[in-house]
Amino acid sequence: MAKLTSRSEDYSKWYNELVVKADLAENSGVRGCMVIKPYGYAIWEKMRDEMDKKFKETGHVNAYFPLFVPKSLFEAEEKNAAGFAKECAVVTHYRLKTDPNNPSKLIVDPDAKLEEELIVRPTSEAIIWSTYKNWIQSYRDLPILINQWANVVRWEMRTRLFLRTAEFLMAGRSHSSRYKR
Question: CATH fold of 23-176, please?
Answer without folding.
Answer: BirA Bifunctional Protein; domain 2 (3.30.930)
